[in-house]
């Protein structure tokens, strides 16, 4: 179980680091032209950058506290935060009538929920 949690955590961290960095460094107009990026047209550039920063911080929060052994309770908290982000993303893509993207967002939400459950419960770093 510990290994499965680390694998899922690493996958999520890589995905959110990449996605967040793209939102931070790629102009909103270019993001909107990318496949699945039409949602960016519905939000301002500041929101897209802030979302990118939240995703990057979430990715760091999934890994760094556990690796350094400093405040490892932040790992499941970061997972919960990313669950909230993905719930919002699923709502946006569902409202845009993009059911495939909504399912992808729900899959990431489920993976983050697995990490949160595992790190709050049976494979907690604390205790």
Automatic annotation (TrEMBL):
<keyword id="KW-0812">Transmembrane</keyword>
<dbReference type="Pfam" id="PF13564">
    <property type="entry name" value="DoxX_2"/>
</dbReference>
<keyword id="KW-1133">Transmembrane helix</keyword>
<feature type="transmembrane region" description="Helical">
    <location>
        <begin position="100"/>
        <end position="120"/>
    </location>
</feature>
<dbReference type="GO" id="GO:0016020">
    <property type="term" value="C:membrane"/>
</dbReference>
<feature type="transmembrane region" description="Helical">
    <location>
        <begin position="6"/>
        <end position="26"/>
    </location>
</feature>
<dbReference type="InterPro" id="IPR032808">
    <property type="entry name" value="DoxX"/>
</dbReference>
<protein>
    <submittedName>
        <fullName>Putative membrane protein YphA (DoxX/SURF4 family)</fullName>
    </submittedName>
</protein>
<feature type="transmembrane region" description="Helical">
    <location>
        <begin position="47"/>
        <end position="67"/>
    </location>
</feature>
<keyword id="KW-0472">Membrane</keyword>
<feature type="transmembrane region" description="Helical">
    <location>
        <begin position="73"/>
        <end position="93"/>
    </location>
</feature>
């Amino acid at each position: 179980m510990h290994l499965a949690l680390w694998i899922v955590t690493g996958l999520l961290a890589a995905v959110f680091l990449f996605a967040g960095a793209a939102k931070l460094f790629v102009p909103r107009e270019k993001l909107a032209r990318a496949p699945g990026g039409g949602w960016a047209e519905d939000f301002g550039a500041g929101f897209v950058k802030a979302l990118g920063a939240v995703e990057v911080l979430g990715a760091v929060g999934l890994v760094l506290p556990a690796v350094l052994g400093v405040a490892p309770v932040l790992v499941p908290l970061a997972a919960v935060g990313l669950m909230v982000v993905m719930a919002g993303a699923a709502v946006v893509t569902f409202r845009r009538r993009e059911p495939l993207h909504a399912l992808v967002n729900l899959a990431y939400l489920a993976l983050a929920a697995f990490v949160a459950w595992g790190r709050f419960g049976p494979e907690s770093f604390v205790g």
